[in-house]
C-alpha cells in the first residue's frame, strides 16, 4: 500500500529552482530516506508533503489526502520533526510531551498516559522530570521524535534526524525508529546527507540531486545493480592508465570504467579477476583495491559526480 504519492513537484525560491519535477511513492510501514547533499531539495520536499510549504506545480497525497486541498487532514495524519529542536528547554521532558498531547486535543489523563508510554519507548524515563534543556543532545533528539509521535500519526517526517549527534546517540535513534516501524506499522520519511545513515536505516531510498530524483530502490538493490565489486586502481603514469583502461573495457562483466587522473575505477562482477587480468597484461600498478559497491558508488553512477564533490 502506498501512503505517500507525489508527482512532478516543482518549487522555486526566486531564481533558485529547489525542485525540478520530483516524484516519489512511499510504501506504508517502511523507512523511506531522501538522500542527497545540502541544497538537493530534500527539506523542500518534506515541507511540501507536511503542508508547511506549497509547491509551484505538481500534486501530492499523504495518507489519502491531497496536501493542497485537505491540509488539516494531512496534518492530523502526520508528525513532523524539524532540523531544529522543537521542545521547550525550561519544561521537563514529561511536561513537553503532555503539553504537545494537550495541544493535539488529547484529554488530560490520556495525555499523561501517552507521555509515560513514549518516555518508556524512547528510554527516557530516567531524565523525564528534569528540564529538557539540561539533557544530552541524544536525549533531546529522542524527545523531539517522541513529541512528533504523541498523536500516533500514520507517517512521521524526520528532517536530518541525527545531524550533530555522536555515533552512539545516532545508533540508538536508528534502533528506536526501526523498532517503531516494525512494531506499529508507522511509516517514516527521513532526509539525510549521511550515506551510512541511508544505507543502514532505509528500506527504500530516493537519491535526490539538484532538485531531481536520480535513483530509487532498496539500498541493497541499488548497490547490486551496479554489478558487484568496485575496483580502484592507482597507476604510475597516464600511459599505464590508458593501457589499464583498455584492458578493463575489453573484459566482460566490467562496466562504468572511469579515469580520474592516475586513478581508475570500475564496477565488476568479480573484482579480484580484474586485478589478475591487469597483471597478466603486464600493466604495473601502484595500489589496487576491491570492495563491495557502496552508496557512494551508486551516487557517482547516477548523479555523475562524487558525493563528496557534490556536498562541497
Ligand atoms: N526559504 C528559502 N528561500 C530561498 N531559498 C531557499 C529556501 N529554502 C531552500 N532554498 C534553496 O533551495 C534549494 C534546496 O534547498 P533544501 O533546503 O530543500 O535542500 P536540502 O537538500 O534539504 O539541503 P539541506 O540539508 O541544506 O537543508 C537550496 O538551493 C536552498 O538554498
Automatic annotation (TrEMBL):
Organism (species): Cryptosporangium phraense
Asked if the keyword Repeat belongs to this entry, the reply reads no
Q: Which residues cross the membrane?
A: none
PANTHER family assigned: ABC TRANSPORTER ATP-BINDING PROTEIN (PTHR42711), DOXORUBICIN RESISTANCE ATP-BINDING PROTEIN DRRA (PTHR42711:SF19)
GO terms classed as biological process: response to antibiotic
| Stated name of the protein | ATP-binding cassette domain-containing protein
Domain ABC transporter as annotated: residue spans: 4-235
Its main subcellular localisation, reduced to a broad class, is membrane
Query: Per its UniProt record, what SUPFAM superfamilies does this chain match?
Result: P-loop containing nucleoside triphosphate hydrolases
Keywords of the record, alphabetical order, are: Antibiotic resistance, ATP-binding, Nucleotide-binding, Transport
Query: What superkingdom does the record give?
Result: Bacteria
Its subcellular locations are:
Cell membrane
Annotated InterPro entries: AAA+_ATPase, ABC_transporter-like_ATP-bd, ABC_transporter_ATP-binding, P-loop_NTPase
Cellular component (GO) terms are: plasma membrane
How would you describe this protein's topology in the membrane? Peripheral membrane protein
Query: PROSITE patterns, alphabetically?
Result: ABC_TRANSPORTER_2
Q: Name one GO molecular function term.
A: ATP hydrolysis activity
Amino acid at each position: 500500500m502506498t501512503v505517500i504519492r507525489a508527482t512532478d513537484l516543482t518549487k522555486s525560491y526566486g531564481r533558485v529552482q529547489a525542485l525540478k519535477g520530483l516524484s516519489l511513492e512511499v510504501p506504508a510501514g517502511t523507512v523511506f530516506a531522501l538522500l542527497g547533499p545540502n541544497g538537493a531539495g530534500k527539506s523542500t520536499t518534506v515541507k511540501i508533503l507536511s503542508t508547511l510549504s506549497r509547491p509551484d506545480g505538481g500534486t501530492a497525497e499523504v495518507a489519502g489526502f491531497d496536501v493542497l486541498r485537505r491540509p488539516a487532514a494531512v496534518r492530523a495524519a502526520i508528525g513532523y520533526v524539524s532540523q531544529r529542536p522543537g521542545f521547550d528547554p525550561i519544561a521537563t521532558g514529561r511536561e513537553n510531551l503532555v503539553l504537545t498531547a494537550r495541544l493535539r486535543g488529547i484529554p488530560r489523563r490520556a495525555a499523561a498516559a501517552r507521555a509515560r508510554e513514549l518516555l518508556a519507548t524512547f528510554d527516557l524515563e530516567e531524565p523525564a522530570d528534569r528540564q529538557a534543556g539540561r539533557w544530552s543532545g541524544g536525549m533531546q533528539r529522542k524527545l523531539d521524535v517522541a513529541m512528533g509521535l504523541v498523536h500516533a500519526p500514520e507517517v512521521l517526517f524526520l528532517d536530518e534526524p541525527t545531524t550533530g549527534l555522536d555515533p552512539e546517540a545516532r545508533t540508538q535513534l536508528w534502533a528506536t525508529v526501526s523498532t517503531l516501524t516494525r512494531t506499529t506499522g508507522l511509516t517514516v520519511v527521513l532526509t539525510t546527507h549521511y550515506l551510512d545513515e541511508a544505507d543502514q536505516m532505509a528500506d527504500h531510498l530516493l537519491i535526490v540531486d539538484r532538485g531531481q530524483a536520480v535513483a530509487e530502490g532498496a539500498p541493497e538493490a541499488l548497490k547490486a545493480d551496479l554489478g558487484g565489486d568496485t575496483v580502484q586502481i592507482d597507476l604510475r603514469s597516464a600511459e599505464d592508465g590508458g593501457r589499464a583502461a583498455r584492458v578493463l573495457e575489453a573484459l566482460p562483466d566490467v562496466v562504468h570504467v572511469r579515469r580520474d587522473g592516475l586513478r581508475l575505477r570500475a564496477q565488476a562482477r568479480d573484482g579480484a579477476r580484474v586485478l589478475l587480468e591487469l597483471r597478466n597484461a603486464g600493466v604495473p600498478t601502484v595500489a589496487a583495491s576491491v570492495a563491495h559497491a557502496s552508496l557512494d558508488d551508486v551516487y557517482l553512477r547516477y548523479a555523475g559526480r562524487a558525493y563528496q564533490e557534490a556536498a562541497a
